[in-house]
Amino acid sequence: MIPPLANPSQSSVLIIDQYQEDMHRLSRLLQERGYYVETVSTGQQGLKTAETNQPDLILLDTTLPDLNGYEVCQQLQANSHTQEIPVIFLSTLDQVWDKVKAFATGGRDYITKPFHDAEVLARIENQLSICNALKLLTMQNTLLAEEIKERQRVEKALRFSEEKFAKAFRANPSPITITRLSDGYHLDVNASFCQVTGYTPEEVIGRTAHELNLWVDSEKRQQMFKMVTMYGGVRNYEFQFRTKTGAIRTALLSVELINLHGEECLLSLSNDISKRVQAEQALQAANEELRRLAMLDGLTKVANRRRFNEKLNQEWLKLQRENAPLCLILSDVDYFKRFNDYYGHLAGDGCLQRVATAIADTVADYRHLVARYGGEEFAVILSHVDTEKALLIAEQIRQTVEQLYIPHEKSPVSAYVTLSLGVMVTYPTSEFPPESLIGVADLALYAAKKQGRNCTIIEVL
User: For the domain bounded by 158-277, which CATH number is listed?
Assistant: First the structure.
């Protein structure tokens, strides 16, 4: 039985697949889960439907009667009306380069046929969650930008003429103070200042900011005074102040050097931005969490394919400069399809989660990245690891997974779940692209399978 996912809230999915049996199965599965589903069987129909109906997600088969799936995805990406719609490829092709091509044309994910219902639902839910989070953040950014623009408009409008100064000073909604430049004593404050800080005018007038302990950072106050004496004023100087109760608030301070009755004074206007700062901090945290989630595999919680590609390119360039070795380990759960067929997809998901955790724990002491490379494939990137060390680590991974003792009655090689591993070690150079490492590691993995599985084969480029 497939566990229920989050409520799809009538999210729409467009299926582009020439194989009627697959299309009907997917359509029925998604409709049962509350999705609104449209189906077409050609690339041209898919492009037209996507632009007209704007589905929330597209399931796209690589093989179509008119255009292939890669061409369809490229055209979707080139169209401003459809380029933001996430595309998940469906294919019977399971080679590394097929998957690389799918991601290169703009695909967000890749599902190999025959597919498993639980995996399809999980991948769809993951992509829709990411898209919804992006839409929410965009809306929050827009609202924040409008608030900032409004505050800037208000500040620009606050230019007093001398005749209206007294009235504007008393009625202004922003806190305003007048202090003597020579000694810093407050000469006057308006009602807004008293409301924000909690002081009465009598408690402030005749005392300095230092005596009231208003500024949280006294060095910033000294810096502000230097800027005023040098330039005649400051605009939107961010600082933190204390209220009478000791609460810390954040404000933007604008200060103008004025002459009042023959004395040089400072006219200071501040806008409390504490709520805005809190909103910006919350937004930054949400953005960081979104970036983290966008780089994780939804099932196993290790890095996903996108993060793997990014990390591989980063390490390739870095280790090329350092003239240091780079190791890639590709591993595959032996006879995983038989495991899934015999124990069920829920057990299969649990198996992959335990294997991913075991791999991550094994390499925790090294500079590494563990990623889910495919359905039952995992990849490990290790920096500054030579051939001898790489083989030792790979064998530790293999033994650790085997010692999980996950029963596998349908495996010809062991009574428990095992891994086959292909290891590749090289010193990155500009002569070869990072993808060459993947190709050789994949050949080593193939050799490990051919040798009988539950073993490690290492290659050096």
Answer: 3.30.450.20
How far does the chain reach from its first CA to its final CA, in angstroms? 46
CA distance 231 to 255: 11
Instruction: Compare 168 and 378 and report the one with higher pLDDT.
Output: 378
Average of pLDDT values for 279-301? Answer: 77
Query: For residue 158, what pLDDT band results from cuts at 50, 70 and 90?
Result: very low
| Residue 3 pLDDT | 41
Q: How many of the other CB atoms lie within 10 Å of CB of 212?
A: 16
Helix (H, G, I), strand (E, B) or coil at 328: strand
428, 319 in Cβ contact below 8 A? yes
- Whole-prediction pTM: 0.46
- Domain at 305-460, CATH homologous superfamily: Reverse transcriptase/Diguanylate cyclase domain (3.30.70.270)
Which residues, 6 or more positions from 153, have their beta carbon under 8 angstroms from its beta carbon?
A: none
Hey, where are the domains in the chain?
Answer: 12-136, 158-277, 305-460
Kindly give the pairing relationship between strand 248-260 and strand 263-272. antiparallel
Fold match flag (158-277 vs 305-460)? no
145 secondary structure, DSSP code: H
How far is residue 61's CA from residue 92's CA, in Å, rounded to a whole number? 9
Tell me how far apart the 2 most distant CA atoms of the chain are, in Å.
Answer: 98
Q: Is the pLDDT of residue 378 over 70?
A: yes
Which range among 70-74, 262-266, 371-375, 401-405 has the greatest average pLDDT?
401-405
- CB neighbour class for 389 (10 Å; exposed up to 12, middle 13-18, buried from 19): middle
CATH number for the domain whose boundaries are 12-136: 3.40.50.2300
Which residues, other chains included, contact 189 with Cβ-Cβ below 8 Å and sequence gap of 6+?
Answer: 175, 176, 177, 178, 199, 201, 204, 205
Half-sphere exposure of 13 (CA within 13 A, CB side): 30
Q: Is the pLDDT of residue 317 over 70?
A: yes
SS (H, E, C) 250-274: EEEEEEEEEEECCEEEEEEEEEECH
Helices 117-157 and 274-294: crossing angle in degrees, nearest 10, is 160
Distance CA 453, CA 372 (A): 19
